[in-house]
Design a protein that fits this description.
heterodimer, A: alpha/beta, Rossmann fold, 6-stranded mixed sheet, 4-stranded antiparallel sheet, 10 strands, B: mainly alpha, 2 domains, 4-stranded mixed sheet, 4 strands, elongated
Chain lengths: 246, 347
């Protein structure tokens, strides 16, 4: 699904963000991309979603080289959930979703009401403006927007942030469901528990380099200390020498 | 593509409504029209009060705009303010009129001459057959009338052109920028980077909305203040100039809003634009101030073209329209670059 070879990117002469990343993400996989702020996670995701160009190396999505792929066609097949719930606050959840849905081919678009229902969105807020929603409700609408076009590849940036425990469980269940339906998930997060619970494989990124890439179980096994299995966060610190919140 | 433009337009329309943009435009329309009709056209009617003392009844009936007084003392008292002008008519009916001008100097010699000329002009209006025969080139004689405008219609055309220029240059510019700042604040511009939308349409829909709103505003302002007949006569030219100005200002507003990080910086740019760029244009066109460099000022040409449109003078040449078209294309490209840059920003 995603193939990245020797990916480099620089924001100017003195700001090299990526130093030659290599990784692949298989079809139907949930791939975790973990790293502290400023490690290169967002830059990588922006390159994969076609926002940033001018990178070095090779990136292919759906078996097609990003440089040669028609961006509009590519965007029809992906869904993106941003870290913050970016929505039109003067519009309602339904109006927001209908607006964004109008840009996709009809055959790809899911039913807005069904999606909101699946995300357990409060019905009495359906027609109220987003400005009156809590962060959790906004996050639900954002997730619905990311899923609107039945994406084959889903980019999720901190999907669980801002959700209460029941919301977090719901989101994990939805992500699993999407994967079961054949969607590939590229999950960017600080939350090691989410990564451990959801991801088939994780990559640790630090200072623009991939420090480790394997299944969470293997990474933990390989880094056992005193016969006690470490947490994924402890493994991350072992590889990078940094905590995720840095 | 057409469907997407309609979707964008609907969304932008709702943003404008929630931002009270149309309400602001309606408020401006009411304010400008009320000022023009209730205040401006009534100003400048009586420049200086003129009083007449005519004990021998030499002149007969009092001319319009002249107030009769009953004694010389009364005349002197009325003229003490350095503003009013007194006319003491002496001589007998057979000898013709020999008015003596009485006034206290206002301190500016040239203005005193104007006061005197004005009083004499009232006393000897052109249409009075019993007035003395004067050379039409007499320094104190009346100016010939060029064109068919009455003084009121000329005032209406001038002030309507000025208000429309101000509205499009300042308020329209702010309207688009505030709409875009709202979208920036909500972060939704970045969402458009990952959905299959045309960035050209994203800009175009805002331009179309602002353009339509500005054209409607221009048409209403013109018809309300010039009257239906005169308004419709000048409307094609006015709409053309309003359209050009609206597009240019909307694109500048768009560019500033996507490039500048917050509304505070935008306000500063807005002030600079209003004070240092537009003010000299108003000064040169409306007063006697001369600035040689003004012909290189783009707003000067836009303003004079707008004014000329109101007087049905087709001064704008092909080169003017060529430069305007080039400016719109360049600004559109710059807006696209700015939008692209905003979309790439960190979340």
């Amino acid at each position: 699904m995603i193939e990245v070879k020797n990916l480099t990117f620089s924001y100017g002469k003195d700001r090299q963000a990526l130093h030659g990343l290599d990784f692949t993400v298989e079809d139907g996989e949930i791939f975790g991309f973990l790293g502290p702020n400023g490690s290169g996670k967002s830059t990588t995701q922006k390159i994969l979603t076609g926002i940033l160009t001018g990178y070095g190396g090779r990136v292919s999505l759906f078996g097609q080289d990003m440089g040669a792929a028609h961006t509009q066609e590519l965007l029809e097949k992906i869904g993106v959930l941003f870290e913050f719930p970016y929505l039109y606050t003067n519009l309602s959840a339904v109006d927001n979703l209908r607006y964004f849905a109008s840009f996709y081919p009809r055959e790809r678009v899911r039913d807005v009401m069904e999606l909101l229902d699946k995300l357990e969105f409060k019905k009495d807020y359906l027609k109220k403006p987003v400005s009156s929603y809590s962060k959790g409700m906004r996050q639900r609408v954002s997730m619905a927007r990311a899923l609107l076009n039945s994406p084959r590849l889903l980019f999720l940036d901190e999907p669980i942030s801002g959700l209460d425990p029941s919301g977090a469980v719901l989101f994990r269940r939805i992500i699993e469901e999407e994967r079961r339906n054949g969607t590939t998930v590229f999950l960017t997060t600080h939350n090691m528990m989410d990564a451990d619970l959801l991801c088939d494989r994780v990559a640790f990124i630090s200072n623009g380099n991939i420090a480790a890439l394997d299944t969470p179980q293997n990474l933990k096994k390989q880094n056992c200390m005193d016969s006690k299995e470490p947490t994924l966060e402890e493994v991350f610190i072992q590889y990078t020498g940094r905590g995720l919140e840095e | 593509m057409k469907g997407n433009l309609v979707t964008f337009l609907r969304k932008d329309f709702r943003l404008c409504v929630s931002g009270k943009f149309f309400l602001l435009a309606l408020g401006s329309l009411i304010l400008y029209s009320s000022y023009i009709n209730l205040v401006y056209v009534k100003l400048d009617q009586e420049i200086f009060p003129v009083y007449r003392y005519d004990p021998g009844k030499v002149q007969g009936e009092c001319a319009a705009g002249v107030t009769d007084v009953g004694s010389l003392e009364e005349l002197e008292a009325a003229c003490e303010d350095g503003y009013s002008v007194g006319l003491h008519i002496t001589g007998d009916p057979g000898s013709g009129r020999k008015p003596e001008i009485m006034m206290v100097s206002c301190g500016v010699e040239s203005l005193d001459h104007i006061r005197e000329a004005y009083a004499r002009a009232l006393l000897f209006p052109e249409d009075r057959e019993d007035g003395p025969k004067r050379d039409s080139r007499d320094a104190l004689g009346q100016a010939g009338i060029i064109g068919t405008n009455t003084r009121e219609m000329k005032s209406r055309r001038e002030i309507t052109a000025e208000f429309l220029f101000f509205e499009l240059a300042a308020v329209g510019f702010l309207g688009l920028a505030s709409m875009l700042f709202k979208e920036k604040q909500m972060g939704v511009i970045r969402v458009h980077a990952v959905i299959p939308v045309s960035r050209v349409l994203f800009i175009l829909s805002k331009l179309v909305l602002i353009l339509l709103s500005d054209l409607l505003f221009a048409a209403l302002l013109t018809v309300i203040n010039l009257g239906m007949k005169e308004g419709l006569r000048v409307l094609p030219g006015v709409l053309m100039q309003a359209g050009i100005l609206s597009l240019v200002m909307a694109l500048i507003g768009f560019l500033c809003a996507v490039v500048l990080p917050d509304f505070k910086q935008f306000s500063l740019i807005y002030l600079v634009l209003a004070v240092f760029i537009t003010t000299p244009v108003f000064l040169v066109v409306q007063t006697g101030v001369e600035m040689d460099w003004m012909r290189f000022h783009p707003m000067y040409h836009l303003f004079t073209a707008m004014k000329n449109a109101y007087f049905q003078i087709s001064s704008a040449q092909g080169i003017y329209y060529g430069v305007c078209a080039a400016a719109v294309v360049l600004l559109f490209m710059a807006a696209q670059w700015g939008l692209d840059r905003e979309m790439k920003k960190e979340g």
